[in-house]
Amino acid sequence: MSSIVAPVAHAAHSAVASLFAAAQIKPGQELPKPGKGAKVKASGSADPSSAFELGPFEGKRVVIVGVPGAWTGTCHAQVPGYIENFERFKEKGVDEIYIVAVNDAFTVKAWEDNLKGDKPSPVKFIADDQGLWTASVGLLFDATPLLGGPRSKRYVIITTKEGTVESVIVEQNPGELTITDAKTVLANLS
């Protein structure tokens, strides 16, 4: 049995390592184009046929908030600020806010339901269940010791209405919330 497990584990490790190879997206670049296979799912929609590619967002200024994991303490503290301040983001010219977590669609849906309460959420929760979209923008890291596998760095990407990246804000430590909280991002939006 161990002779079968070792090659499979090595292949899986190699596949995961290749996900970290993408360079981090930078201002002025475009988000990954459709057709690259980096599909995500809306919260609660686990059917593979419902997967879609996030972006492009031409004609819309979008804030994409990447979090390491639904329900984790820091993420659970970060996301309500985006929900509560959605109207303030709109006043600054933001059309949509996406919360992207490297979790399955059911976990993301339960988290969304918990955070929004009885009201509909003005932000869109996205499950990047395989981490492919996050890897395509170079923001995946190996969180195996703490979270069991690759996860998203804590980041905020802001796009222009023309479809390019306006700014990328990444926490040095994904377990901390310093520069990617909603109030700090709002204060720096023009």
Output the keywords.
190 residues, alpha+beta, seven-stranded mixed beta sheet, two-stranded antiparallel sheet, 7 helices, 9 strands, 34% helix
Brief characterization of the structure:
With 190 residues, the protein is an alpha+beta fold. The protein is 34% helix and 21% strand.
Question: What's the helix and strand layout?
Answer:
Elements: H1 2-19, E1 39-42, E2 52-53, E3 62-67, H2 73-84, H3 86-91, E4 96-101, H4 105-116, E5 124-127, H5 132-136, E6 140-142, H6 144-147, E7 150-152, E8 155-159, E9 165-170, H7 182-188
Parallel strand pairs: 3-4, 4-5
Antiparallel strand pairs: 1-2, 1-5, 3-8, 6-7, 8-9
Task: Give an overview in words.
It is a single chain. By secondary structure, this protein is α+β, with helices and mostly antiparallel strands. The chain is 34% helix and 21% strand. It is built from seven helices and nine strands, in the order αβββααβαβαβαβββα. It has helices at 2-19, 73-84, 86-91, 105-116, 132-136, 144-147, 182-188, and strands at 39-42, 52-53, 62-67, 96-101, 124-127, 140-142, 150-152, 155-159, 165-170. The strands form two sheets. The protein has a seven-stranded mixed β-sheet. It has a two-stranded antiparallel ribbon with strand order 6-7. Strand 8 (155-159) and strand 9 form a beta hairpin. The chain is globular. The relative contact order is 0.21. Mean pLDDT is 84; it is low at 5-14.
